[in-house]
Design goal:
The structure is a single chain. The protein has twelve helices and 18 strands. By secondary structure, the chain is of the alpha/beta class. The protein has two domains: about 260 residues, TIM Barrel, CATH 3.20.20; about 120 residues, Lyase, Ornithine Decarboxylase, Chain A, domain 1 (Beta Barrel). Strands 1, 11, 12, 13, 14, 15, 16, 17 and 18 form a nine-stranded mixed beta sheet that branches. It has an eight-stranded parallel barrel with strand order 2-3-4-5-6-8-9-10, surrounded by five helices. The structure holds pyridoxal-5'-phosphate. Pyridoxal-5'-phosphate binds next to helix 10. The site of pyridoxal-5'-phosphate (PLP) has 17 residues, from helix 10. Keywords: Decarboxylase, Lyase, Pyridoxal phosphate.
Length: about 425
Amino acid sequence: MELTERTERLRRHADDLVSAYGSPLYAFFEDDLRANYGTLRDALDEQYPNSEVHFAVKANYNLGVLSVLRDAGCKAEAYARCELTATRRAGFDPEDVLLTGMNRAPEDIERALDWGVSHLLVDNATELEKILVAAEATETVPDMLIRGNPAMEVPTHPEVATATRESKFGLDIESGRAMAVARQAVESEFVSLAGVQLHVGSQIRGVEPYGVAGREMLGFAADVRDELGVEIDVLDLGGGFPVPYDEDVPDTETIVAHMAETIRETCAQYDLDEPRLFVEPGRRLVGNAGTFLGTVGVVKETPYADFAVLDGGTNAVSSYWPYPVYAVKDREPTRTYHVAGPLCYSGDVLSEDVPLPELGPGDLVAVDRIGAYSLGSASHTNAEPKPPVVLVRSDGGYDLLRKRESCDDVLGNDSIPEGLGDERQ
Ligand SMILES: Cc1ncc(COP(=O)(O)O)c(C=O)c1O
């Protein structure tokens, strides 16, 4: 949906949302969640039907958001511990859950195996050791995917590039580390080597990295077959599907078509059976489904810029990506503002030089397409409680998906040393 359409849609709901749930808040749109998954599923059905979509729960682990995606037919990729719990509570079947993680607690691996998760990623040799111990203890034989790292170029922000030589993730292919772990898995009676995985990174702006990833991992799969006599069943190309924050990015269909073409060509080249394709998108399924809505409290003119100060800032939305920012009131932009939060540090600016209409206290401002990673990275800076999460349902109704935090939610786990308690409060 184009930004103008999104703005119109938000205008229809913004006042009602804020009067019902207060400001600031996060609004999520059920229509977007379903459409994002539907577009990807349709593209896969057309280009590569033997495939599964595992939503990367790290991108948004709100139980309501997860439940909508689960209801739409999506499966899940969960990092251990509370993400795993989130998938359970949101009603996913264990056989629809893929467990990732590069340093999981042994008890989390056991819990996942006891529950019956379908596949586990293996990022390093120590993780394989842990899985072997947990598999023996739980009397299961889990399917595992080896996470590779072919030391490739990844066109995105360095902090979210995960298949580069500098990255901590995956098993290096060239040095033989990936093959050594594959060999140990094949020789063990406690696991089954089901496939290979490569998550290139997040917000991947071109299609070619998926081609490189597919060729590298299928090349590795061919080596595994030749050296160990095992043909893999699953190729997992991870997530990374981008969101158009302020630039054109490849659409879902183009990415999927490129993946499908690469797999077909490379399998023909190595004489491999075409594997089941897994993808683990996070950002693309939820990014454009969420909007942060804040209220201007102060407009402050300084010799440097005019600041519109909202009631929430980088505590609620990291300023990492160039999210579209617009006013809810329907007026032409006449000025530019630095849109800032209220926190006590200078970096608490959400966006600079934003063209906006004349703003005053009480005006609503939207920070759009913040649905991925914002809830997880929201902080308690300045002891600010986190905003509520509201779902705008497809039928036009609202559901509160997470209530606004109180000071007790922020401070309630703290305790005061003995002798410094009551008398000072
Ligand atoms: C293993 C794995 N899969 C999938 C994802 C999702 O990436 P994105 O949200 O860019 O699709 C991540 C993100 O960090 C990841 O680490």
